[in-house]
Amino acid sequence: MSTVIDVQHLTKQFGSFTAVDDLSFTVQDRDVYGFLGQNGAGKSTSLRMLLTLIQPTAGDIHVFGYSIHTHKKDILRQIGAVIEKPDVYKYLSAYDNLQLFAKLCGINPSHKQLMDQLELVGLAERAKDIVKTYSQGMKQRLGIAIALIHQPQLVILDEPTNGLDPQGIADIRNLILRLSREMGKTVVVSSHLLSEIEQMATQVLIIDRGKKKVEGKSVDLFDPAQTIVKVEVNDYTSAIQKMSESNWATHLTTDGSHSLLFSLHRDQLPQLYKDLAALDISVISFQPRHSLEDYFLKITSGKPHVQAYTN
Amino acid sequence: MYRLIQIELFKIFKRPRTYIAFAAITALIGIIQVGLKIDGAEYASFVMADFNSSFSVDGNILNGYFVCYVILQLLLVHVPLLIALIAADMVSGEANMGTLRLLLTKPISRTEFILAKFIAAAIYTLLLLIWMAFLALFVSMWVFGTDDMFIMKSSYAVVIREDDIFWRYTGAFAFAALAMITVASLGFFLSIFAENSIGPIVATMSVIVVCTILSTMNIPLFNTIKPYLFTTHMIGWKEFFDLQVNDANEAIQGSIQNIDKLIRSVAVLSIHVALFLFGSWFIFRKKDILS
User: Fold this and answer.
1) Model confidence over A172-216: pLDDT tens digits?
2) Which residue of A has its CA nearest to B105?
């Protein structure tokens, strides 16, 4: 597999604020590369630098082996992008918008090609309606159609599921998977939604406060077998004492909510259930949950933007 | 580049806002023409009041050429606002809609982008002036007929023969187009800095109002900067309607009294256009797109 994007020591400063700090990563051909980070982590700034919308303070960006500084037009000809909201001309129809942006890419698609593209994103029936009448999800899909109209090899999508309902999110996810698996495109997708990245990405980069935290294959980073179980018990003091003296002491943590937390492998769940019963601990609820969120919070700063509500 | 300009013009003429200017000009000229058609004789006798005792004036004073001159005098002060509505929205409007970032992820250079947008704004300005010329001159000629043109200046009157007028109007409208392109380039320059349209439109009008006041105030401090202000030269189209006189104090048909002043005005306006365009390009080529 060849390298599609090679970013080295990328830095962007806005005055004294460092939005992206010495960031390096590579994206291989046909990857779905997940860019994961909390809001304000530097994801959009990094992607904007890839697309020449923002000038880096320092660092090099090579796409398809060419420097973005010297081969800007050649590189952009092979990239389709949706950055944040899919804003298009609201007073034009989807068809006119698509045609306009196709012409900007130097192509003059036929009516059939335009309609096929709109069909791909499920907008063919509303092709002639002005965009002002579209829902957020429809605008998002139109944005993706515009990004794909010139058949780019690399697709960059910044928070493509923002503001979408569950069906809209599923549509975008399926589209991204289709782009990668059926059409052989390389996709860079950013999100702050862990579950989204987990379901789509083959490679993941976690960024926090402009710095790279982790980069690797998503199967390695997000082991689906690793689980955290939250056990709500009747008598918390007694339960924690009994479990601290058992073989489960090394798996046990607490979160201050008077529930027991066990970090363990999925295969160990039946045994835990049996042992709780054997130790005569009255269980009110037993909630296994994926460790991804905890992992992400551990990797990033983990501080909530707003204090947790407790009653 | 040609394709980019086409796209920009397509966008301009698909927006309802674009037609406000055309509608406003049509309405204003129509109102003036109707007013002069109904009460024109009274207006003409008022204009001629000082002359009627000394001169006998024959013919159709209130002809299409005269009406067009009146319209130009009244309208060219207000047209900059209509120009600013589009020109000051060219870049800021895209930033406001969020389409700027989408446009700049396409394989076009920022230089091409700026040039295409500026040329589109200039074409819009030209079309507006052509529409104005059509209504103010040709419709007036049709409604009011043609004859020699009689214009009152502050201390003298000018009579231009009918066969000597048309080229003057061609020149005057061409000059007015340059003056309006100067306004467009100012609005365009200011639109580079903003992410909404209102700011640059208001700023453009404010700059014009302030500079116009400075151009008209006769204070020594301002007199030194007056020659360099574009507003001082925006009314230069009137030079086309001032004739040279010979030793016998007879008007020389086909002449312009102060051609040097006209050329200087063209030069100052052109330099302003070039500076605003260069400034737009210089700032925009490295600008971070954060909208």
Assistant:
1) 788 888 888 888 888 898 887 777 777 788 888 888 888 887 777
2) A51
- Kindly determine whether residue B101 and residue A73, on different chains, have CB atoms separated by under 8 Å: no
Distance CA A77, CA B107 (A): 5
Does residue B291 form part of some domain? no
Looking at the domain assignment, is residue B206 inside a domain? yes
pTM of the predicted model as reported, rounded to 2 decimal places:
0.80
Phi, psi of A63 (to 5 degrees): -125, 130
**Domain regions of chain A by residue span:** 3-221, 226-290
Residue B106 with chain A: CB contacts under 8 Å: 76, 101, 104-105
Complex ipTM above 0.90? Answer: no
| Per-residue DSSP letter, B135 | I
Give the architecture (CATH level 2) of A3-221.
3-Layer(aba) Sandwich (3.40)
Write the residue in A48, A77, A89 that is nearest to B99 by C-beta. A89
Q: Is there a contact between B95 and B194 (Cβ–Cβ < 8 Å)?
A: yes
Under CATH, what is the fold of the domain A226-290?
Alpha-Beta Plaits (3.30.70)
Closest residue in B to A93 (Cα) is B14
Widest Cα–Cα separation across chain A? 74
Q: Please report residues of A whose CB lies closer than 8 A to that of B7.
A: 100, 103-104
